[in-house]
């Protein structure tokens, strides 16, 4: 079964195993022929990192990211696979862990005006905005806007659309940090609506953070618990068994007063995290809610 099907079904162990085999086969071929590995090996590692993070296996994700950073691949750094996947897996770690400070400090490792650089600017912008650093967030929004404009000029409409969604999501969180809740909720919903009707690019197992999940986060922090729960559940229909959305749906249900619904989602979240490192604060919060 292809890896993207495993991801679509939320089969994380199968995703890891299939991509581990693909990576090792490619590495063995490269060593036997004394040549750099093909960029497709980064694609396999990105899938592995995403799956590890959904199970809370953060140390394994870090180790895989380190492997990717050391890997010498054929071609230049702005080739799509190398540009996207090498950047994406590094950004996934702080974003999936809601480590906004680490996300805001991510380095931009690839050429500007590429999709890889846009991923870093998105992660940095979300991190900064969620820390309340609107000045930093605005810089990242400007970088995303420049990339979007350049892609549009070059006729790369599909990737320009992806970058536009990310720019609008960061804008929404910057607006919230600046105190404009009405504009923030409007733009968060608009980004999510656009992403919902945008086909996922084959290069990626999933977006760094789904726009609908980011909207759900915003609804949660602004006290709209029922709406937040609905948005997390919508995310889970598009991306089954996403850890952040499982926890978010549970937390939103709890705050909305649905104890049974909250327990069900907390149970699912903890079951999925059973082989994890146990370091995430959400795990302790879920256990406390089930006592």
Describe the structure using short key phrases.
single chain, 291 residues, mainly alpha, Serine Threonine Protein Phosphatase 5, Tetratricopeptide repeat, 3 domains
Structural write-up:
This protein has 291 residues and is an all-alpha fold. The protein contains 15 helices and no strands. The longest helix is centred in the first third of the chain and has 21 residues. The termini are far apart.
- Shape label: globular
Oligomer status: single chain
How much helicity do the residues have? Answer: over 70%
Order of helices and strands: HHHHHHHHHHHHHHH
Sheet with the most strands, sense and barrel status = none
What count of helical segments does DSSP give?
Answer: 15
Low-confidence parts lasting 5 or more residues at pLDDT below 50?
none
- Derived from helix and strand composition plus strand pairing, the structural class reads mainly alpha
**Percent of residues in beta strands:** under 5%
Q: Overall pLDDT, averaged?
A: 93
Q: How far do the termini sit from each other?
A: 39 Å
The count of DSSP E runs of length 2 or more, i.e. the number of strands, is 0
Total discrete domains: 3
Taking all Cα atoms into account, the compactness measure Rg is 19 Å
